[in-house]
Amino acid sequence: MFAPLAPQGRLAVAALVAILLVLPLVWHDTYVLHLIILSMIFAAFAVAWNFTTGYAGLKTFGHHAFFGIGAYFSALISKNFDISPWLTTPVAGLVAACAGLVVALPVLRIRSVPHVAMVTLGFAEIVRVLLTVFRETTRGEMGLWGIPAYDGFTIPGLGEVVFNAAEKVPYYYLAALLFLGSVYAVVRMVKSPIGLALVAIRDSQDAAESLGINLTRYKLLAFAASAFMVGLLGAFYAHYILLLTPSSVLGLDLMILVIGMTLIGGVGTLFGPILGAFVMTIGVEAMRGIGEYRMLIYGALIVVVVMFMPRGLVAMLDGLGPRFGFGRQARPQAE
Amino acid sequence: MTFTLFLEQVVNGIILGSMYAIMGAGLALIYGTMRILNFAHGEFYMLGGFFVFFLFAQQNIHPVLAIIIAVIGVALIAALVQRMTVSVLLKREGWAFSTIAATLGVSIFLQNLALALWGERFQSVPYFVEGLLQVGQFRLPWQRVLIFVVAVAVMAAMAAVLRWTRFGWAVRATAQDAEAAAVVGVPAARIHTITFALGAGLAAVAAGLLAPVFAVNPWMGLPLIIKAFVVVVLGGLGSFPGAIVGGFLLGIVEAVGITLTSSEWRDVIAFGMMILFLWVRPWGLFGVKER
């Protein structure tokens, strides 16, 4: 069932990864690099969300909570206690994973899609409001600034690596590491017995349970692993953008963006969320000229995709022929 | 805090609760018949607010007429939306998620359409009735009394329609089992569209009544739809009486909660209550345990 990559597919993926890694060496445009960094962050976010929603079938609408928790935790700890962001970033991932377990607990008891949607959304809203209310620490909507950037270091032979706003290349590679790492982790999980168990749960809980799959353990795992990745991404975002507000990292807009990207790319596929994230981040940026109509088009696009191409863009790639090996695992989801 | 002040808070909570109840009842009606969560419900509320703003605040049309036109207008828009999206998706596999995604898209679309058409200004609407009701120390603006009275009347009328008319029977039959209802000749698809429109119409009633209290703007739907979610969880998704009880309960708990803490905690209280409820009694006060 999972043959995500045929040999030709492996070649294509290797080529794409190579292009991604070589790009900053040949194209120095700061703005372009910034766009690709954002695309990679959103792509990894979408991949992580898709892991919970598309593979495990737990339709959550509150993953932005983990992004915000990761971002604020890492920013506040590194700023107030003078601890290196290199240390606070992985810890932020763990904190987000714990939050993931907390959210998963009520989700264990409910099956209906609307209930899961509401409890996860409600959790994210609680986190957002709390960050707004405790404004002595978080500065609320005024924005948290003065967040330390990653410490520089020296690579023998290559020279010094500095993280600051003007120099995008180090951030680019760090983002690439997070992005490729997340994708790799998800691919490994999906191809392992864990992935098979999750898909079995998605397709039929009762059947999965009768075959001896421990629903509780796998659901908790799906939430915690995904929350960990999103928490890491949030922490990276905090030390990259260096300014946080509750509405920018915890607003429903962020979640909608990621949901839109995944839907447009293709839910429940490996390549779909990545494709969607790149197309939408760069597409939305290209549409910046038409200002306020961007979100209008975005909303309409989500409706059109859901109505007319429920399998997303990867399904179209599929039509190009299995030569490229992309998206062949794309298939309509069972409820 | 004096007792009178506390009483005022609770009464205000009940009045706001009646609005939560109307929003939640609309959502519950839609969920009850179609099993879908309508994320665009807040935007139907927002459209209702703009109808009343343009008709009453700008054109000076009598508020009763303005609200009636708002309800009809919003219901027609909702019917169109339902026909174009939900109605089609319901026939496909995976509809529980795809209808949420589609209505979420509709919600973003309508919100930004309003932003593009009418701008981001907060438009104020004057009170329909001036003056204060005063009993001893206790004071209450007549506008709020009006909100409460109209809300109760609308909900009673709605309950009566569901209980005693052929249309109401058809709605309840479709809610219980759409296929069985179709077998005995109930036009299920039409009932779905009408119910969706009716639910949106209820949101427009709430918007019309609340427009003078909260300003009209493209984002006004978000806080209300989130409260409506809480309400339907408390009452049991899809239960009309449950939504009404849930609405009042939420209004009162919020009012008491914020007198003990501060108004910033309003949403934390509401969501905390929702998550607690989902933990202890996921099917709500009036819902049926679904397995």
From TrEMBL, chain A:
The keyword Transmembrane helix applies. Its main location: membrane. The keyword Transmembrane helix applies. It is a multi-pass membrane protein. It is found in: Cell membrane. The chain crosses the membrane at residues 9-27, 33-52, 87-108, 115-134, 170-187, 220-242, 254-284, 296-317. Pfam families: BPD_transp_2. One of its GO terms (cellular component) is plasma membrane. Keywords: Cell membrane, Membrane, Transmembrane, Transmembrane helix. GO terms for molecular function: branched-chain amino acid transmembrane transporter activity. PANTHER family: HIGH-AFFINITY BRANCHED-CHAIN AMINO ACID TRANSPORT PROTEIN BRAE (PTHR30482:SF10), HIGH-AFFINITY BRANCHED-CHAIN AMINO ACID TRANSPORT SYSTEM PERMEASE (PTHR30482). This is Amino acid/amide ABC transporter membrane protein 2 (HAAT family). It comes from Stella humosa.
From TrEMBL, chain B:
InterPro entries: ABC_transp_permease (IPR001851), BCAA_transport_permease (IPR052157). One of its GO terms (biological process) is amino acid transport. Belongs to the binding-protein-dependent transport system permease family. LivHM subfamily. This is Branched-chain amino acid transport system permease protein. The chain crosses the membrane at residues 12-32, 39-57, 63-82, 94-118, 142-162, 196-216, 228-256, 268-286. It is found in: Cell membrane. Pfam families: BPD_transp_2. It comes from the Bacteria. It is a multi-pass membrane protein. Keywords: Amino-acid transport, Cell membrane, Membrane, Transmembrane, Transmembrane helix, Transport. GO terms for cellular component: plasma membrane. The keyword Kinase does not apply. GO terms for molecular function: transmembrane transporter activity.
